């Protein structure tokens, strides 16, 4: 057995006298430090509550694709109070870049929306591709100020810039079998961190009936507020279907496929009882877990309360006839 | 480190620790007020305040439930002297949470609120949890503890039910990404397992 020699204790291991004498104060400081750091570290991974939320809130939104677009004004939504650019570009549901709404504006910064091509497939005369530059030339760009109602119960008014979706569909030349059109988003794990998590069945897929896609209100948006789309809003091109819940608007589309049978969309797979194929805005048909009768308008502040949600998001006059005879409770 | 932590603080130190904790527990509210004045409550301030107050309710609740397992595991008993204060902060944040829901979110419009409570289970579960916290807060004074005697302990076992309801409430409202409620749920589960282990599986010889 070895007896511990005095020299076996390195001088660095000896507690300095002043620290030893001050050990009570040390306990106090240490306990305060432990508490604070434990609280911080526990909430840190969570964007909504932790320090990172305020950092995101404080950072200015950046559009890395700020090229201004040449477009013509239209009468759609004239007189509606538009949601601020800041709110439109910092409050996004874009799970490919994270599931909290402040994440996409941060995580999409390195995303490269150029060069970009979209492939046309399925029930078409001929499979082909189109570059984003050529898409711009299919039809003159128009501004459409649309209300956007999210399935979660909030809404915005967004001045989109885009082309009528019908123009793109006509160019794609679907054949006579085509009844539906599917929009498939990019799912690139290198650029989109959220795709590495199995939260949704990637790639994000949305679809419309062909007559819905041909409706003059449906657009393929390439810009917002007169500029090219910021990455977090779905650059370089995204679907906008204003009478449906926001999740129908697939972002960063890389493939458009025409089908004969009704496609299964990502959210239908994620929650068949909660998200249907049509997803028309309908205050009378509740989401199983929350009401759809009212909505919070983004930008209206803390104390303004909710507003009533309108049938087909207020576009009933234009789109209602497409659903005549359809049971909207079953086909939610 | 643990041995430093194990030693019971003196009265003066305890006062200091208590005051520190008081301020720490107040920071989530101060943060909201600060962010509110700076207009930094995100694009959807009502949702942000609702989520934040809900989160701090759950967080302080889990802290109060951690105190006993810490004693059982490492023998540090003095933090129990902070438990009432933290528990009352839980009640405070729960009150702010439900006020946000009733006032900022629903403008005290009772037809919508009653419909929401009756039709949507996550709201009902959350409300039930809140109602159950009221007797705990009311019976938290020394005189109530004396008056209730042995029944006080039984009454305050409601906290386990409240905690489980709180996790269910959170789990039920997230759209798809369940990582957060899963994390807190697992934490609660661990705490309950520790208690069960010490109460039923380990003989009470210490």
Considering residues with a beta carbon less than 8 A from a beta carbon on another chain, report the largest interface and each chain's count.
Answer: A-B, 49 and 48 residues
Counting DSSP H or I runs of 4 or more residues, the number of helices of chain B is: 10
Unreliable runs of chain B: none
Using only C-alpha atoms, the radius of gyration of chain A works out to 26 Å
- Tally the structural domains of chain A: 2
Instruction: Give the overall shape of chain A.
Output: globular
How many structural domains are formed by the residues of chain B? 1
Q: Report, as a whole number of angstroms, the end-to-end distance of chain A.
A: 80 Å
Structural class by secondary-structure content of chain A: alpha+beta
Query: What is the assembly state of the chains in this entry?
Result: heterodimer
CATH superfamily of the largest domain in chain A: Oxidoreductase, molybdopterin-binding domain
With helices defined by DSSP (H or I, 4 residues minimum), what is the helix count of chain A?
10
Which whole number gives the mean pLDDT of chain A?
A: 88
Main pleated sheet of chain B: none
- Overall number of strands of chain B: 0
CATH domain topology of the largest domain in chain A: Sulfite Oxidase, Chain A, domain 2
**Rg estimate of chain B, integer Å:** 19 Å
Portion of residues within helices of chain A: 10-25%
**Strand percentage of chain B, roughly?**
under 5%
Throw out a few tags for this protein:
heterodimer, A: about 325 residues, alpha+beta, Sulfite Oxidase, Chain A, domain 2, 2 domains, five-stranded mixed sheet, about 20% helix, globular, B: about 210 residues, mainly alpha, 10 helices
